[in-house]
Amino acid sequence: MKITRIINNNVVCAVNERRxxxxxLGSGIGFQKKKGDDVDTEKIEKEFFLKSKNVTGKLYALLAxxxxxxxxxxxxIIQYAKQSLDKELNENIYLTLTDHINFAVSxxxxxxxxxxxxxSEIKAFYANEYRVALKALDMINQEFNITLPxxxxxxxxxxxxxxxxxxxMEDTMKITQLIQKVLNIIRYQFKIxxxxxxxxxxxxxxxxxxxxxxxxxxxxxxxxxxxxLHIIKEKYxxxxxxxxxxxxxxxxxxxxxxxxxxxxxxxxxxxxVTDEERD
Length: 279
What we know:
Elements: E1 2-8, E2 11-15, E3 21-25, E4 46-48, H1 53-63, H2 69-85, H3 93-109, H4 119-125, H5 127-144, H6 151-165, H7 169-190, H8 199-216, H9 226-235, H10 237-254, H11 260-278
Antiparallel strand pairs: 1-2, 2-3, 3-4
Helix pairs in contact: 2-3, 2-5, 3-6, 5-6, 6-7, 7-8, 8-11, 10-11
């Protein structure tokens, strides 16, 4: 393998025999090396293949400024998340999570801790991602011999959700806030308390996550099954009225309109979860 770029003493870019570009991590792998030199393969600790040139370029710029321990622990967290959640993650997480960990550790050392205003919602709506994030917090604390607060697990969970949905942090924050608003409408109209461990509640949260993602990414759900739409509207009138209230909220707060399809599928999920809570 030939070195194509030196990022720092511990990170280099190289091409293999198949002309594939990769990023290599290893203590001293770039020390006293130059473009065109052979890679000392005995020093390779980790290899990265990233498809996005945009992500790769930004990651190179970040790694030029920080120790390799940050990308190393970030990669350990990402691999653990993929295995635990059994999901593929957008490779942009290598950039965003590494940058966040660097920022979080820096803030901690300066005695600056940020409160996570959405921590309760994150625990409720992204329970699996939050469990992974708690493990990630342990990894970070052990690597850097620090004690980051639980709020950081919430931020890490959002980065994982971003990577699952392929969205930006701003959108994920808006998605989380919208889910809470929708649940409040349902809770108020039907005067119920949700059983957060129930299957129908879990299905509702999953539906709302993708519902909100479609909303903020201007993706329209269209089924063309007019008979089904009519049956649901007539059969579940109270639940459909609740969906109309949610549509009004979205119109006022976000300036967006819901399609009939979105309203009807939302109605079905409301029906299921409210029936369960009333039983």
